[in-house]
Amino acid sequence: MRGLALIIALLTLMLSPPPAVAQEAARLVPGASALTSSGGGWLRGPPDMQLRLTLTRAVPYRVFLVGDPIRLIVDLKDVDFANAKAQDLFGADLVPAIRWGHYRRGWSRMVVELPGPYRVASAGLRTGAPQPQITVALEPVSEAEFAPRPSAATALRDLPAPADLPEAPITEGLVVALDPGHGGFDPGAQAGGETEADLVLEFALDLRKALEARGVNVAMTREDDSFVALEDRMTLAREAGARLFLSLHADALPKGQAAGATVYLWNPASDNRAARQLAMRHGRDDLLAGVDLAGQDDALAGALMDFARTDTQPRSENFARWLTSRMALMGIGMHGRPVQGAAFAVLKSPDMPSALLELGFISDDADRANLTNPLWRARMVEVVADAITGWARDDAARASMLRH
Ligand SMILES: [Zn+2]
């Protein structure tokens, strides 16, 4: 019988069509592909999201979700992403990260890190004109309703890029420094009877609570209405072993110049006028208090700082993406350019990922109404706390991939 089986097997082999002339791989058409969102708002909750992938020809595909962290996986047969960069996809800033690449013989994989729990409401392939398109509709669900694919471990094998295999996440032993701006003789910006120093302190204390509830250790640069020099704020954070330094502000700019939450990262070369104004104003109070920040680093120290920054700057940028995608998800109004560079002295520290978050601008009526609205503040606290823990997991996963 075994001989017969062998003959049948051989016959089958001989009868099967000769290896076809390799069909040209389908290509993604990046310009006609996008991630979009609809609905949602800070009172209504996360928006729906739609992923549209336009291809040069129809291909088999599959779509599923995995957890820890929450991701949408789209596997595509014979698709060549060629030189298209995932982060250039229209709407890529709606989510913390998108990656794609070759994954296994004949298959490519797209990984969309989601900023919260979703379900796949529908997925379909339209083969008609003008070009085939895969559409995936995502609907937000609660944590309890989130149903990732059970065999996630298998699904995660062979992902195209690092940071896709987080090992034992995460927040254990994580220390985050919260830096409520201003304080003491420096009230910061003022408008409508509110002061920036008070608003951001209140926010920071709420955020500390939310982070501690998530198992994160929080170091505060100030816990009351006292003045702390900028350099001391960084030193405090460093001594606490903070993995992230987050400065909180709610500044004022001339009417019409700024509204909506804005994330600032260190960039001494930034030529944005408003950002320069803000950064300058934030060194001035130190000078008033007798602290001189000028001339602290000579050329050698400068070079060392640049070297250290090659590690921390991408991590700060990644944190900014986590923040903006969580804010977009939860309907928090953001500045038209939500991530900007500025030479804020408090972001100078090269050895710690750091960011300065303008929660909003106290000079903008709508922003000020939000900042003083307990509902909005509670929502924003959740957004920032989730961004911090999401980033910390991602950051730890990337670090462990680098070590291997
Ligand atoms: Zn400020």
UniProtKB/TrEMBL annotation:
Residues 1-22 form the signal peptide. It comes from the Bacteria. The keyword Transferase does not apply. InterPro entries: AMIN_dom, MurNAc-LAA_cat, N-acetylmuramoyl_amidase_3. It catalyses: Hydrolyzes the link between N-acetylmuramoyl residues and L-amino acid residues in certain cell-wall glycopeptides. The lineage of its organism: Bacteria, Pseudomonadati, Pseudomonadota, Alphaproteobacteria, Rhodobacterales. This is N-acetylmuramoyl-L-alanine amidase. One of its GO terms (molecular function) is N-acetylmuramoyl-L-alanine amidase activity. It comes from Paracoccus maritimus. It is an enzyme of class 3 (hydrolase). Residues 234-389 form the MurNAc-LAA domain.
